[in-house]
Amino acid sequence: MAKVSLKGISKIYDNGFQAVKSIDLEIKDKEFMVLVGPSGCGKTTSLRMIAGLEEISSGDLTIGDQYVNNVAPKDRNIAMVFQNYALYPHMTVYDNMAFGLKLQKTPKDEIKERIEKTARILDIEQLLTRKPKQLSGGQRQRVALGRAIVRKPEVFLMDEPLSNLDAKLRVQMRAELIKLHNDLQTTFVYVTHDQTEAMTMGTRICVMNDGIIQQVAEPKVIYNHP
Ligand code: ADP
Ligand code: ADP
Hints:
Radius of gyration: 17 Å
GO molecular function, one term: ATP binding
Mean pLDDT: 93
Strand order of the largest sheet: 6-7-8-3-9-10
Protein name: Sn-glycerol-3-phosphate ABC transporter ATP-binding protein UgpC
Keywords: ATP-binding, Nucleotide-binding, Transport
Number of strands: 10
Organism: Fusibacter bizertensis
Order of helices and strands: EEEHEEEHHHEHEHEEH
Structural class: alpha/beta
Bound molecules: adenosine-5'-diphosphate
Number of helices: 7
Largest sheet: 6 strands, mixed
């Protein structure tokens, strides 16, 4: 059974523009699915509908065995990482990571344990007492990942998470995300306009164009047969 299932999903914005046109997509448990395509093709809109941040105009969305069309983001078993990190500037790294867990009423000692374990995985143990403005771009991106991982989501949603990093760091973080996916054994859905990123990271790739899905296949199938 699919981990995330989109059936006939459409998005028509308030101004009447149809950004997503009745797409069907079955994302399997534990796969690294990359949504790729040119700017404006509907990738972010699709991801935001999975996250519950954008209302679905029509179609059926399930995550795990839960029908989630009208389920609030916090009650979906997902976490999302954005390109602009969206860290809380007045909080330390530790408190940024603890925030979602506190909302879920996770016990204090479990919060501490989970944050320390996550910080080790991402190599940010030394940064826990800093504020976001005291971090480099790469460090901020790791903290944003940490804040998502620490909640142990079933599905991990990422929207161009590397696009604000310089080229060298971007290549390094690609490898780290592949390793993270292997370590966490969870489902990743990753949006990018960058074909190299899609090809190197995805276990499967969903190619979008103008609000529709053109092809869903393994990277070697898509990029070896133009
Ligand atoms: P992508 O992530 O592939 O770049 P988006 O999903 O962000 O594409 O956008 C798809 C299309 O929907 C674009 O043409 C964009 O301009 C349009 N769009 C996005 N948000 C809105 C909105 N709030 N109102 C109207 N149109 C929107
Ligand atoms: P990068 O070149 O990778 O963006 P920076 O030049 O911003 O990194 O930072 C280099 C090192 O200095 C990093 O380890 C970062 O944590 C540390 N650092 C940056 N700004 C501050 C600050 N305001 N206070 C303490 N440490 C800082």
